Amino acid sequence: MFNSSNIAESITTSELSTFLEQPITAEKNFTLLRNGYYPFKVLICKPSLLPGYEDDTPRPVVSVRFEILNDSGNVVINHTFFINSSSAQMIHEFFASIGLAEEGEYVPRWDEVVGCTGGCYLGKRKLDYKTINVIERFVPRD
Question: Which residues contact 86 (CB under 8 A, 6 or more apart)?
Fold first, then answer.
């Protein structure tokens, strides 16, 4: 597995500020895909700190934007990796899917993931106002 202890120290205040100041655009078209396997391409990867609640310390996260490739037009999905021991298996599966996983303990090379391709299984999550696609698991490369 990987070692997540140094990611919070690797994020500078200016990088976090730049990330938080990026403009957003409202969704105009929303395509809900069927559950199943889809290939993907990584478009964006941004580490940040999720503010803690009350006395909690900020928590490191990595936000990744995926382009899901399919016949009805490519769809963009955002996924947030929480950098903690509970998420270690999914992070390892993501790196195995894009061909960057290493044996044993390793530090993920988040700066190398943009442009990488892999495969994942999508599911759905029902929110109060709509149903969205979510990545359920990543498929390791052969």
Answer: none
